[in-house]
Amino acid sequence: MICSQCKKRTAVVFINKIENGVSSMEGLCKECAKKRGLDVPETNTNQSTSNQTNNNIDMNNMSKQLESLFKDLSSNLKLENINIAVPNMKKDLGDKVTEDEIKERLDSVHVGGIAGYFETGTIRNCTVSGQIYADSNSTGGFVGYSNGYMLLSKDTNNVAVTSSSSNAGGLIGWANSSISVVNCSNTAQIVAQKYNAGGIVGYAKSGEYKQTNINIAYINSKITILIENKKISDKYSLTLENRDIDTLGLLKQGKFTIYDVAKKVKYENVILDDGTLKVADIDIKKLGTDTYYIEQVQAQNDYNVNNRYVKLIVSKTWDGINEKYDVSVDYKVLTKEQFEKETATDESYSSSSSGKYYTGIDVDTDAGTYVSMSPVIDTISVKNSTNTGNIIAGDYNAAGIIAKTTGNVVLSKCSNDAMINSKRSSGIIGETLEEDGKEQYLKISDCSNNGNLEPNSIESAGIVGRTTNTMVTIIDSKNTADINAATTGGIVAEAEGKQITINNCKNTGEIRAVFSSENGFKDAAGIMAHAINKNGIVRISECENTGNIIGDQTSGIVAYAQLDKIFIDKCKVDKCNITTNMNFGGMLAFANSNITITNCDTEEISNSRGSNIGGIVGMARVNDSVLNVTIAKCNVKDSVLNSDSSYGDIAGIIAKIDKEYRMSNDSNPILSVVSCEVNNAKASGGIGSGIAYMVRMNGTIIVKNSKFISSKIQTQSNFGGMLGYSSENKSILVDGCNLKDINITNSNSTDNFGGMVGYLDQKGNTLKVINSSVDDCTFDVNGSYANAGIVGTNEGDYTRINNISINNMKLYAGNVTSGVMAYAVKDAEISDIKVLNSEITSNKSSSYYINTIGTILAYQGSYANTLNIKNINITNLTKLETNVPFAGGILGITDGKNLNISDCSIISDNETKTQTTAERGAGGLIGCTKAKTDINNVTINNMKLTAASDVSGIIGISKNIVNAKNISLSEIDLVGQSYSFAGGIVGDLEGSGESEFDNIEINKINIDSNENSGGIIGQSTYGVNPKISNVKVKDIVINIKETNDGRNIGGIVGFANSKIIIDNAKVENIELNNATSAGGILGKNIDTSGIVSNSSVKDIKINTSNECVSGGIVGLTQGTIKNSTISNLTMTTTNTSTVGGVVGLSFNDVIECDADQINLDITSDYNNNIGALAGYVSGKVENCNITNGEIKLQVSTGNIGGLVGYSGKGINGCTTNLVNINTTKAINNSVSAQGGLVGMSFGDINNCKVSNGEINIATQGFFGGIVGNLNANITNSTTDSLNAIITKGQNLAEYMGGIAAYSSGNIENCNVLNGKLSFIASKNIGGIVGQTSGEIINCNTNSLNMTADASGAVGGIVGYSNKNITKCNVINGTINSTGNSAQLGGIVGKIVNISAELDDCEVNGTNMYNVGYYSGGIAGYGEATIKNSRFIDSNISVSSDSAFGLGGIVGQGTNFSDRYTYVMGCKVKGSTIQGKAAVGGIVGASVPYIKACSVEDSNIIGDIYVGGIIGYGGDLESTSSSYTILPVTVTDCTLTDLKIKAANNVSEVIGYNSFNGESDTITDTTASNCEVTEANKDEKDNEDVVNTQSLDEAVYTAIDEDVKKVQLNKTLE
Question: What is the distance of C-alpha 1005 from the center of its chain?
Fold first, then answer.
């Protein structure tokens, strides 16, 4: 053919020209072809569009020949049924061809239905059908290979394209330059047996096409190129805020300096008057970054200046789609040294003066008027295009629109509705890459995939398979089809760019990740499977997934991200089923990235398996470049999150954050979860959290304003509603969070469960949980360790829990269990907590020490220095039960150093009490504390505490100092089941140092225990030294259930082995039962420095069948009791008892104590010490008073007193009034002693009084109106109106007395008034003392009615004495001696000591009666000097016929020369002396010396031997070698107005003279108006012998020398 151009030379290049649908052939010679810009090959062949096959066609050269024609190509071409086949070279040539030759062939052969090779031009409104098979790397239904800008519009490919190699496309196989495809479609199957099969394009590489004027004619019109430039500006504001790191409140008056990137001052001394200030509005003039350094110069008062610098980095980027600037902010905290090393850098990378950068081509073909493009066309653009043909690639990259690109890409309004199958498949674009050294973009908008992606893929996605473009934007796109691949995304499979934005995209198809042996990934996500670029930033917003997700690592939005930052906002995952083997996150499955997820929702998803399962994030990994994970305003609702692993991590928001091993300790990554909500979630099979599970990132965790509600979880361990597990973190904050209607169970055993936080295992961290609540939750976790309503375990340095509300929570847990926090290893502060209508139960059985339960904190470890608990309000806590060792209403155990609890209350207004149980120690406040404990302002009511060991209303066991103040307990039941100490405040108080208990009120407490128990302290051991003051105990009952010894109970303290001080204690209406030692204040104290003072007990009952030491105030003490009172005590014992109204047994002093209404009912066969005040006191008793006492006895032995049973050091200033003592069983021990005041005393008794008592005792021992047995002195003491009936025990008692039964000391100034004494004794009875070996001085009885049945001596003052009796009086009394052999004296029954004197005593107005022998108005029998004494207006008589010796002064004396009776200066007046034999006005018989005595106006009556002075002189014949019998000598006596009457032997002076010896002598004695009557005169003459010899002479003549020696101490006048 001749060249159609020059018409001269032979044509060597042939061009197929298509115009207006008509095809024609044009041939050019070599020269003309070159002029036209065509490459001229060495050989050339023709290409036909007919159905032909030619193995020798050079498709490459043919395409190039057609290129120039297509620069002016028209449209509307329709090719039908084309059939192009380019055979496989290797198949044709066999082994002769090399691999390099094959590659060269594949790269050089281009096959297309319209053109194999295409330069620049447009194809519009064209349709091609048929089939193409080519052994080529560029095969297309329209164009095989394009090398210039190309525009395709409204084209349709129906050609089935198959490439044996790569790059097969429905329209273009390989586009090597920028293209624009608009409104095109592919309907045929496209196959690349190796790589890159695309429904529109197989492979495209954008180039820079430059042309200033383009005129393309079509449809009789021209296309005008418009270039738009418009000015766009923007600003951002720089605002400073200064906040408190804990409260986040604004801090005023801070001052700051701000530097620019060069560290030059930009804004100086910026003052934040209100805590915040807008510093400036910054104009955006250039893209890039603005850098500021901020330094704090001055802080608010009470705050330290922050000496770090904040580096603020503001990044400015252009959003080309929305035509606006984007500003993002990052920051770093620098030390001063780091700040100084900072260097300035150029921060801008382009000018924004033109306002807009054109990054693609915009074609409005529908209007048919213009094309708007940038001056530089460097974009692959596909718009409004579809694929409905199956796309298959044997290896990588099959896509509905473009299989693979390099360069800038824009896709808009494209769709795929066919099956895609390759190792990397995508509904829209398979893979996008960047040219080397360039940062290029991918923009996709309004695209959709509806075709399934088959499971042969490694990477598949509905929109993008893989992209490495720097900037990726995907908006308004969706996938509805099922996708199967190893890495699968509903929108993107993998993105590796720096700036990735996905907005308003949706997936509804099932995304299934299948196993791939090539990469091992099985990751699936509804939006994007992988985002990988360590410097990359991903922004995903307003996206949604409703399709099922299946894979190893799955997510509704992003499966895996390894980036600098990822932002996910306003996304939703809804109504889908999730199957995962590893990580699942509703928004993000795994990320090694800064994460910000906001305003996202996961709803109605269901997951059945996996390990790290999060409703929002599955797992995140942080390193030095990853500093922040923020999740805000996200919700998980109506979802099921499960794990098939017993150790799988499950969380409603974020499952796991882990740090990289190479991370430095200087890093401070931050996890922030804010305003998130998990609602109606269900989870099982793993371990986890409602919000975040495992966080191990060496940084800061913040969970704020988040909710976990209406959910059911089955978990394994380390579960926390807000944070499950945290390790190696510095600071954790949970603030403003809420759990509501949560039901959590476990399938095995849950360690470290917390309603808010599960387990923090990193030493050095701080935890704060504040402003949060738990409502209507049930935690049935059956855990073995550390389970709590708020925090499980924190092993870090500090825990703060503040402002927490727990309402209607039921916690059924394990060994360490708490309503708020289970285990704090170190310091903690818990405050402002409210617990309402809740129940806490530990169902584990363990004896391990730290296993415990506490409503606020279960256990604090030994590394702790301080624990502060304050402002706690617990209301209607129905149960706090456990089988582990310890339980506390606030705290289980602390092993720390200092514990402070204040302003707390545990209150129940339910009919059923709060139930608290433990194995070893249970406390209404604390189970056990080893810390120095301070408690202030605590109220507890309506609680029942049960422990096998120690139990208390406040502290079960304390092993250190306790200071408790301002405490109120009421309606408390304390039950100790075995070896148990129980106390209202402390069960067992141990340790060393002084403990203080002040201002405590206890009301309505019942204690059932087996060991030491008290209303305040059960037991206080050696060294702890409690001081108790200002306490009130009312309406309590303490029962000891066992009957073993050593059970001590007290209204205040049960047992104290320490210096205990109790002051101003008030106890009222208490009952103490079955104790060994019981006291209304103190059961038992064995420290001598203890003191009970200024205290009172009222309305107390003590009952016991044990051997008992009990007192209304103190049972047993070695300390002092003083200034204390008791009233209305009822005590009943049935065993050996040492009991008292105030103290049972005291080894120290009892001072200034009063008792009123004391009722003691004692039954015992053993030794007893019983007193209305004290049973046994070895110290002093001073200024104590008893009123209205009743002592009922059925005892065999004992010391019994109206005040004290036994006194060791005496009694001073004490009284009893209306104290009655009664026995219904005889006391059968001769050493027993009973007294109206004291039974036995070894100390002096002074200033005491017994009044108005009724005493009825059957005794074999001693009884005295004041003291039974006194081994000391008694002075200034009185009985008044004491009525005592003392009857016989097994044998007769020995001694009885109105003051003392027996005294070895002096008795002085004592009185017995107005009483009735009925005594029976084997020996001696006295109105003051029965027998004494001490002096009696100034003692009196007045109006005493005494009946005495004694075998010994009976005296109005003393029965028997061997010491002086001085100034004693018996006034207006009655003495009735009924003993047959008794000796009766108005003052003394018998006085025996020649050296003793009875001086200045008087009996007045007293009637005396004796059945027995010797009777005298002053002395019944006297062997002493009796002088200056008087028997006035009194009567004495004897009734026994055998009675002998009755005298107005002495009944019978002794007249032996070595010992005799001397009576002088005595007087009888107005009296009647009536007896049988030997009756005298002064002496009955045998008194040798009577001087200066007088008898007046009296009657002296007897049967025989009756005289006005002496009745019977004596038989002088009875002598021995040591003595002789002395006659009577009467000197200077006076007889006046007497009636002396006898049957025989009667006389005015001597009734019957001495005989058988010397004659009696009467000297200076006168008688006047005396009437002597003798009934019988046949008896011996009784004439008085009157001798004028002086008495002195008579004495000296009658007494031999031995007698003189004896009388040297007598004064004879």
Answer: 23
